[in-house]
Write a structure and sequence with these properties.
121 residues, mainly beta, 0% helix, seven-stranded mixed sheet, 11 strands
Amino acid sequence: EVQLQASGGGLVQAGGSLRLSCVASGFTFDDYAIAWFRQAPGKEREGVSCISRSDGNTYYADSVKGRFTMSRDNAKNTVYLQMTNLKPEDTAVYYCAKSSGSRCRDGMDWWGKGTLVTVSS
């Protein structure tokens, strides 16, 4: 069974940093792109970042470019989202998701439970 477990959320002041982790199991991690999404209260889910398989190409939403960095450790079946200079508008539940293929554009086919990030002003 595919499992994606996100962790690392919490309460942080504006300007602060957090690192989210997502540990995956139940599939060949190296073969798939992985993404981070977020959903703020009352808003639609939005894509934050995605990293393709082993070549590590990453993609970011304009709203987080220059502040967030996504990486993956295939030996640990884990992806990370380093978030810096956090803003109150970054407050959301963050989810990691598995792509149906090796590329981010292949579309997501499995979602994990989220971790809540709250940024206070």
